[in-house]
Every structure is written in C-alpha cells, then in structure tokens.
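Hey, quick one: can you model this chain's 3D structure?
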Amino acid sequence: MYILTNGRLITRDPEHPYFEKGAVVYDGAAILAAGDEAALRAQYPQAKAIDARGGVIMPAFINAHTHIYSALARGLSISGYNPTNFYEVLDGQWWYIDRHLTLAGTRASADALYLDCIKQGVGTIFDHHASFCEIPGSLFEIARSAKEFGVRSCLCYEVSDRDGEEKCLQAIRENADFISWCEKEQDPMLAAMFGGHALFTISDKTFERMAEANNGRTGYHIHVSEGMNDVYDSLQNYGRRPVQRLQDHGILGPKTMLGHCIHVNTAEMELIAETGTMCVNNPESNMGNAVGCSPVLQLFKHGILVGLGTDAYTNDMLESLKAALTIQRHNACMPNVGWGEVTAMLFQNNARIAAQYFDAPLGVLKPGAAADIIVMDYKPFTPFSDANIDGHMLFGMTGRQCQTTIIGGDLKMLDRQLVGVDEEAVNAHILEESKKLWGELNHTTY
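Sure thing. Here's the predicted structure for all 446 residues.
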C-alpha cells in the first residue's frame, strides 16, 4: 500500500475535485482513497509514502488515437519526398515507412512510444497500427512491449486494400487473432478493436470480410473523412458518403471510434449521434497535413462523444489540448469558443471512451478507480484552485513537466528517473532498428 503525498491534488471527481494539500492512497492496481493529506495519513499510517515534492497530483492522461508505427520517423528526411496533397503525404511517407517496417522495427517503435508515454504522463493509449512489410504477429509484438513498459493499450491493425488482397487478408486475420487472444487472456491492461484505414482504401468486399471476422466481438477503429479523398471516393464509387457506407456495413455503434471526421456533413453527424458512435480529434496532425479543421463544436452540439488524440504527431496530450483550442477558435473566427469542448475531450470524454474497453475507471482519482496517477512539476505563480485548473493546464503545463508516473499501481517513473528500465540499452536498440529502417527508405547506410 502506498500514499502519494505533498502536492496539490486534482481528482477530476466532480464531488471532490481539488485538495490544496492532497494525497492518494492505492494498493495494487486500485485507488483506495483520494483527499486531504493529513486525514489520509492518519487513516493509513501503514502506507509507504511517495513524495510529490510540492507538484500537482492528477490522473494520468489517455491518448484516444495514436500510431506506434510512426515512432521511428522522428527527424527522418526521405529523399525526393515533397508532398503537395494529403494522398502524397500518405503514399510518400507513411505508407512508404510501414511497407518497410519489420516485426523488429514494430517492436522498436512500440518501445520508443511507450517510453515517451511514461515520460509525458500518458497511462493509456488507443493505437492504430500498420506494418505492411510484416503483418502477422505485429499486434502481439506491440502487446509484449506494452506489458514490458506497463502502459495500458487498446490495439488494432489497419486493414486496407492498398497493397493487394494477400496483405489485406493478413491484416484482417491479425485483428481477428488478436481479438481472440485478448478474449482468452482477459488482461486488464490490454484490449482490442478492429482496425481499418481510410474508406478510400477499403472496398465493400473488404468491409464484409472485416465484419465477418469480427463477428460483433468488438468495435472498429477507423479513419473517416480525414481528407477529401474519402468523400470523393465514396460518392463516385459507391454513391454514398463515408459515414453512410460505414452504416451500410454495420460498422457504426457505441464501441466504434471514427478518427478525424473532418469532412462530415450534418446528415453524417446525425447518423453518428443516432448510433452512439465515438469520434476522436487530432488537431496538430490535421493542421500539419493541411486537411482541414474537424467540426468539433458541431459534433458536440449533436451530442457526439468526441475524444482527443495525437495521431502520433506528439505524445504530449497537453500540447494537443492547446492546439485543439487554438484551431477551433481560428476556424470559428471567435476567440471565446472551444474551451469547454476541448477540455471535456481530454479530461472527460477520453475517460468515457476508455470505459468502453477497460473495466477500471480511468481519468479520475477516487476509490475504486485505476491507480493511474502522475505528478507534474508545476509551481504556479498565480492563484491555483479548482476554479481555474484547466487554465493552468492550457497555459502553464506541458507533458514534459511530468516528474512521476504510476500506471496500474506500478511506479514507472519517479522524479524523472525511469523505474526498472535500462533507458540507455532500450534507446540503443531503438536506434539500431531506426538506422536499418532509414537505410532501406533512402537506399543508404546510417
């Protein structure tokens, strides 16, 4: 049993949101109590103390959409790559990378991303993987990394017709096999969805195969209307808009998550709302790829559950939060919109999304919730209370200020020192695999 003390406590529990001198008591993977430090020290004198050193104690972050396969691209320059549209971004960089990503490269990518998650206070991720060089076993390789680093993960494989029928069938099988394995293992730290790339790379036949392989066991995690390619392809080849196509194939529903949803119209929003389908916004990636601004404000007005992801553009959820607010205000030409929506996405909705796949309550510090706790090295020089917490998050904190990370009751980082991880050895392994990948991509050696 442990007690994390000596910090300002943000619980995200509406009944008891803030304690100026707070503490969290946890035993194993679950929280026993969260509240006033003096009271909890008296109640649990036997608990071993962990010092927050005056920092801000809060729930670990949840990333609702990321891509492990892109981790080794940091700093990469591909010879001849100069995209002028979204398709060229996909084909010239991301598809090019995943076509060269081996199982060893997948493992190195997962190790790199999980290390970053721990350092930036992310305790749970929803990943959408692609490694068309070697598909079979790729999700299991990621799962091994997830277990080693202890980051809670919901995984899926990106089904697509873009590399031919054999690769498509392998991707479908990888999803199905991993779903079956998760059902058997019942690991509270691992879950499965059925992945799909953008609709313009998925035929009706493939959707039918996906639905058959899934057989209603889990929800789908799929890119939707990220670029206009999806809209044009659906209308020209199927006479339906993308969300309507998904409904035709039984893809929508409360456990399904649609990534991006930038170019969706009112009718599609109504369909998403009626089916209880979830959406996830990835603001920095959308801006970087110049694909547009997701109509988050309108999605909220339709009652749609919208979460916040990074699309692996960053692993810092607070960085993504800042970008989400600024792009919504810029797009609306209104400096007074978006605050409630974007903070709800990160601090409320991501937890509601996670509740579809993990039993323990996440994103909150209260009795019975998962012991996913972080400490931010943040010493405010302006008044700080439950009345302005989100303002401090948006304008004062970054993920790199995380100093201590606890996930599922396991101490992963203490005072910025990783626990139980030989970081130099892990980094050396990742660097070796990235050099191999970069060499193949640019036909040279590094």
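One thing worth noting: DSSP finds 15 helices and 18 strands in the chain.
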